[in-house]
Amino acid sequence: MSCPKCLVVDDEPIILELSAQTLSSMNIDCVGAGSFAEACEYLKTQMFDLCLTDMHLPDGNGIDLVTLIQQEYSNTPVAMITAFGSVESAVQALKAGAFDFVTKPVDIKALRVLVSTALKLSEKHEDSFSSLVGESCAIQSLRVKIAKLARSQAPVYIRGESGVGKEVVARLIHTQGARASKSFVPVNCGAIPTELMESEFFGHKKGSFTGANTDKPGLFQTAQGGTLFLDEVADLPLHMQVKLLRVIQEKQMRPVGAAKEISVDVRILSATHRDLADLVKQGKFRQDLFYRINVIEINVPPLRERIEDIPLLVERILQKLTDNGGKTDLRLSSEAMTFLQSYHFPGNVRELENILERAMTLCEGNIIQLDDLQLPTIKDDIEMTEEDYGTWVNVSSTEAHAEGLDPLLEDVEKERIMKALEKTRGNKTHAAKLLGISFGALRYRLTKFNLRFNSD
Ligand SMILES: Nc1ncnc2c1ncn2[C@@H]1O[C@H](COP(=O)(O)OP(=O)(O)OP(=O)(O)O)[C@@H](O)[C@H]1O
């Protein structure tokens, strides 16, 4: 097998020399280019497994080279060599598509780690995305983004409502990338007591505080070489935000009670269901940390915006329930499926899982009926007065059957829907809001009850 080949672009001969020595000790061929133009010439005529480029080149800039390689030679991972402490240019490089950066003066150990990570990256085959179920456009474009982000080492901030699949996405970014053989360490930042946070994250030395009876590694050490997923990152107290920022920037940390700093090589992924930019505005989250963890942002859309994925998700969840000892050959009646596709799922996929688990227990036989779903019928709405809509009915359809209330409930529902439509002059969006149900749920009911409003 031939040696991997690396293109190093820098106008400082000492950097070219150092890189060549380090790379050849790793059995990697090194080709040096002193300028942007020279690098372009090499790229046109040779294939490279990796490119390392300086930020400042005599005839151009490293970011433009990153962009060019991303566009024309996308199989070649590229890393940026930046001046020490220049966070801005490192962030710029990662945003342009560089998979990582190394600071000057170049630390040989850091360079070795970076190069071996990059080479694993180009060897990596397409793994399956089977944990991310869905064929909607939203999920398909999410997969493309994940595949791209997996090739990078940039911090990624995953945004999305509760239960939408943010951790699924984080795991995929890890397992599809070069760090896959090392640990993925998820941590719920809101679940660690403030006084234990520092020792949880950075570890501690025996005797460093009362109760520290042994040396204990922190989450950063556990994730060494792998990925640390900071879930609910908005819950980090401000003093921890400062400490975390330092570690991310300097790639060094000191366990509680330790005399020496240790190097950390951990990719940071973070997520929250809250609006982090808004928390920054309110002074509850540090702008500098936000800037550092939010180098690349990815949004996981709510389930109600991809209802075409519901049948596939249902199939997967029912299969999982069966595999875990539940009923076999479980299916959903078509009425139940239609209803699920009109529900607004405030708790997203996790709520769908809970609904189906409960329904499996309730259903007789192996076909889940609409009643087994036990979804709320009409929600209470503060805008509705008792006089307008009668008392709030929150009886599940199952109970309604048992008591023989079904026709009665239907009448109440029909009456309320018609009143809401009258009140909103036939505007279904407003009527659904007034009734406290999703637009899809209202449409479903209009069809089910064969209701027509004058303006229909
Ligand atoms: N697209 C999907 N395909 C298959 N399962 C999914 C998908 N999205 C979410 N899930 C499942 O839904 C549940 C919730 O997902 P996950 O924990 O990733 O959500 P989250 O957004 O991180 O939630 P939280 O905001 O509460 O931390 C998990 O059991 C997960 O496996």
Automatic annotation (TrEMBL):
Report the InterPro entries cross-referenced here: AAA+_ATPase, AAA_lid_NorR, CheY-like_superfamily, Homeodomain-like_sf, HTH_Fis, P-loop_NTPase, Sig_transdc_resp-reg_receiver, Sigma_54_int
Give a GO molecular function annotation for the protein.
ATP binding
Which GO biological-process labels does this protein carry?
A: phosphorelay signal transduction system; regulation of DNA-templated transcription
Q: Which UniProt keywords apply?
A: ATP-binding, DNA-binding, Nucleotide-binding, Phosphoprotein, Transcription, Transcription regulation
What PROSITE patterns does the record point to? RESPONSE_REGULATORY (PS50110), SIGMA54_INTERACT_1 (PS00675), SIGMA54_INTERACT_2 (PS00676), SIGMA54_INTERACT_3 (PS00688), SIGMA54_INTERACT_4 (PS50045)
Which intervals hold domain Response regulatory?
A: 5-119
What residue stretches are annotated with the Sigma-54 factor interaction domain?
Answer: 132-361
Question: 4-aspartylphosphate modification sites?
Answer: D54
The domain of life for this entry's organism is Bacteria
Query: SMART domains in the record, alphabetically?
Result: AAA (SM00382), REC (SM00448)
Q: Give any Pfam family that matches.
A: Response_reg
Per its record, how is this protein called by name? Answer: Response regulator
